[in-house]
Amino acid sequence: MKFKIKTFGCQMNVYDSKKIRDIFFELGFKKTSVDKDADIYAINTCHIRNKAKQKLYSELGKIYKIKKKRFDTHKNTIIIVAGCVAQAEGEEIFKRAPYVDIVVGSQSYQKLAYLIKKLQNKNKFLELDFEPKSKFDGIPKKNYVNEISSYLTIQEGCNKFCKFCVVPYTRGPEYSRTVEEIITEAELLVKNGTKEIILLGQNVNAYHGLDCKNKEYNLGKLIFSLEKIRDLKRIRYMTAHPKDMHEDLFKAHRDVKKLMPFLHLPIQSGSNKILKSMNRNYTIKDYLKIIEKIKKYRKDIVFSSDFIVGYPGETKKDFQKTLDIIDEVKYVQSFSFIYSPRPGTTAYNLKDDTSNEEKKERLSILQEKLRFYQESFNKNFIKKSLNVLFSNSINKEKRQSLGYSQYMQLVRINNKTNLNGKVQNIKIKKSFYKSLEATSIN
Ligand code: SF4
After folding, report:
1. N or C: which end of the chain has fewer CB within 10 A?
2. pLDDT tens readout for residues 345-390
C-alpha cells in the first residue's frame, strides 16, 4: 500500500506534511511519487491567497479521475484534504468534491491514523478541532527520514489579527510547545543526521513556552538552549514579527555562533498609513530601529522580507515609500505578492480603488528593485569564500552538491565526493540572481 502527499504553502505546511508522512509510515504505507499508485492521496493546503484554494480544487479534479480509474480495477483510493483550506472550508469541501474521504484541519491531522483505520465505504470524516497540544502529543516521535536541514515547529497560531491574514482563523490562537518537547525533538533530529534546524512559527518570536519548572522561555532563551546540542551546526528561525523582537533574541544573534546571520523580518509596506490600516502595530521608524540595533549586535546580518502590493488604499505615494524602504534596508531575498482579499478577514470589505493593471505594474517595479539588491549581494561574493552547509546532491555521474550559505544563498558545486552534511568554506566562482556557483574542492 502506498501514499502520496502534495503540499501547498508555507514551511509550517512542509513540517506538517512530514508528520503526516510519518503517520502513513507508521501505518505501514510506502511513499510513491506516481499518482495512480497511491492508495492514499493527501493534499496539505494553503489558504493565504485565493490562487492556493483554486489549486486545491483543480488538484482534486485530477485525483478524482485517477480514483475512478483505480476503482474500475477494484482499487480504492482514500483522498484526504488537510491544512488551512480544510480548516476554513470544512464541510464545503465535501459539497464541492463529494469523493473526498477525510477533511482534517491544521490542528487535527494527528487523528489521521485512527480515521484511516475507521474509514469504511461511504463514511466520511471531518475533523476541525483546534487542539495544538494534543496534535503535538499525538504526532509520531520517530524520525522516518533523515534530513540535513530540518524544520521544527515550536509555535503555532497568531493573536495579531493583521487585517489581511487568515492565519488567526485557520491556525487558531498562539500556542507554544514546551521547552522539553522542542529540545527532545531537536536532539532526535540531530541524532539522525540533521545539521541545521529551522525553528518555525507563524509568529516564531512570540514563542513563550514553559520548561519543566514552569519557567517561561522566549525564543532568544530557547536558542541559547538549543545551541548546546553538540552536533547541531546551524540554527535559523522564521517567521518573525517586528513587534516581537526582544533583547534575548538580539543577544542570541550576538552570542550564538550557530544562529545564522540572516533574518526574515516581514515589513509588508513602507507606508505608516498602510501599516496602520493592516493592523501591523509598528511604524517604519520602529522597524528601522530594529534593523539598526540588530546590526550592532551582529555586524554581518542580512535581511529578507515579505511585501504586499496594492493593499486597499495604497496610493502611488505609499508605494514609493515601500520602494524607499527597500533602498534603505537592501534586502537580499524577499517574497512579494499582489494583495489577495480573503473572505472572513477584516480587509476583505475594504474599498479598493486601484486597478489590477496598476497593481501588476507596481509589483513588477518592486520585484525589479528586489532583484537588483539580491543580484548585487550575490555578485559581491565572486572570488570570496562563503560558509556552506551541503544538504543535497544531484546528477550522480558528474556529482553536483547543493547547499546554503550562512546568508541563505543557494550554492552549487561540481564535486566528485559526496559533501552532504558537511559545512565548508567554499570559494565562489560565479553569481546569479538566485544562486551561486563555487569552485570545485577536489
Ligand atoms: S502576524 Fe499577521 S500576517 Fe503574521 S500570521 Fe499573524 S495575522 Fe497573519
Report:
1. C
2. 999 999 998 999 999 999 999 999 999 999 999 999 999 999 999 9
